[in-house]
Amino acid sequence: MRKVSLFIAISLDGYIAKPNEDLSFLKLVEKEGEDYGYKEFTANIDTIILGRKTYDYVIKEIGTSHYDNGQRDVYVITRNGRPNTGKTIFYTGSLPDLIEKLKSEKGKNIYCDGGAEVINELLRHDLIDEFIISIIPILLGQGTRLFKDGRPEQMLEFVDAKSFETGLTQLFYRRKR
């Protein structure tokens, strides 16, 4: 069965963005030739789900090919529909229903790239199977928290931890059944 995997970076104090959706703190650990396992991770996925704010930010900063490379389905979770473009689908339905449908289909794993609302909706329904969280060595003090209140307790199993020259530490956990 396909897995839903979260691969995301946070500040040491738990923020995925500064106020105003600012992700500039991620540049602190940019290093030529270092992708922190992203290429290897994305080789095992064929579907991406993400929130509309995250999508809009990445499209503005990097471009549409970052998500839609023509080889994977991209579901942008949004309240307001838009016309689909290429393999990018603007999805306005139930997120748990979408995950159930995707997991029942054949394919590689499903990558959740954020944002916080999508992640926390998945957590409320216990739908994230593995967590790859990269911790950036900065305390932001405010912004968008990765984990919000109001979700059930979930036990995780430690898989691995890696540290990098840049100060980034990457934690790997999977949902404990």
Characterize the structure shown:
The longest helix has 10 residues, at 52-61. The model has no long low-confidence stretch (mean pLDDT 94). The protein is globular, with a radius of gyration of 16 Å. The protein is α/β, with parallel strands linked by helices and 177 residues long. 19% of the residues lie in helices and 31% in strands. The protein has an eight-stranded mixed sheet. It has a two-stranded antiparallel sheet with strand order 2-8. It has four helices and ten strands, in the order ββαβαββαβαββββ.
Short description, anyone?
The protein is of the alpha/beta class. Helix content is 19%, strand content 31%.
The outline comes out as globular
Report the radius of gyration as a whole number of Å: 16 Å
Calculate the mean pLDDT score and round it.
94
Helix content: 10-25%
Number of helices: 4
Structural class: alpha/beta
Strand runs, count = 10
The strands making up the biggest β-sheet line up spatially as 5-4-3-6-1-7-10-9
From the N-terminal CA to the C-terminal CA, the straight-line distance is 15 Å
What is the string of SSEs from the N terminus onward? EEHEHEEHEHEEEE
Strand content: 25-35%
